[in-house]
Amino acid sequence: MSSSPAAQTPASVAALAVPALVLGAMAMGVSPIFVRLADVGPFASAFWRVGGAVPILFAWAALEARRSGTPLASIWKIDGAILAAGALFVGDLLFWHLAILKTSVANATFLATMAPVWVVLGSGFFIGERVGRSVLAGLALCLLGATFLIGLSWKMRPEHLDGDLYGICTSFFFGGYFLAVRAARRRSSAGKITFLSTLITAAALLVVAMVVEPRILPSTVDSAASLAGLAFISHAGGQGLLAFALGHLPAAFSALVIFLEAVAAAVAGWLFLGEAVSLPQMLGGALILAGIFIARPQRRG
Length: 301
Hints:
The protein has 15 helices and no strands. The chain has helices at about 10-15, 15-30, 30-35, 40-50, 55-70, 80-100, 105-110, 115-125, 135-150, 160-185, 190-210, 220-245, 250-255, 260-275, 280-295. The longest helix has 25 residues, at about 220-245.
C-alpha cells in the first residue's frame, strides 16, 4: 500500500497547514465582494468562480506531477472521493446562490456556516476520524461567535422559508465537500484534487448558467476583474489552500477555521463597501478565534 501524500511531506511543509487553512478561509470569505461587483447573474458568477480557475489549477497539478516524477496523464485519473468533492461543490454553490436570491444575505450566511456541524457529525462515520472534546468545545464557541457575528441579523419570515432551507442545504453540501477532500487527500495531491473537482463543478455549472442566465459574459472591464478575483483568489487560492491543509489536519478542526469566512466577509464589507462593524460582531469574531484556538490540534512529543 502506498503512503498518503501527507505522510510523504516533510514536517516543515506540514507545519504550514494551519496558516494555509487560515489564508484559505480568508480568501473564500471575500468572495461575496467579488460577486457583488460583477454584472452577471448569480449562476454565471458561480460558473466563472470555478471555470476561470481551471487553467491555473491545471498548471499546479501538472507541476506537482512533474516534481514527483509521475506521468502527466496521472492527473486525469478520478477516484470516487474526487468525483464526490466535485459533485458536492456543485450543490454547495447552487444552493448558496439560491439562498442569496430567496432569503436575506444574513440568513443565508448564518445558515451556511453550519457546515462544521455536519463535518463533526460525519468525521467518525464516513472517514474514520474521532472528534475530541476540544473540537466539540471549539465548535460550541464558534457557533456562539457566528450567532453574534451574523446570527443577530437572522430573521424568521414565511417568505424566506425556501431560502432558509437552501442555506441549510448549502451547509450540508459544503460539509460533505470537506469530508470528500479529506478522504481524497489520503491518496492524491492537493493540486490534482482541486483541479479535477473544479473541472467537474465547472462543467455542471456551465450547463446551469447557460440554461438559467440571460448572459454569462461580463460587459465591463471592472466586472471581468471581479470575476478574475473570484476565480484566482477565492477559488484557486481559497480552495487550493484548503485542499493542501486537509492533507495534514483533521477535517473537523479544518471546518472550524472556515468560520473565519464570516469574519473575513465582515472585514471586507467594512473596508470595501463601507459597512460598519458593530460591537456584537467584534465579540462574535473574538469568540470564533477563541473556539479555533481551543480546538487546535495538539503536538505530541
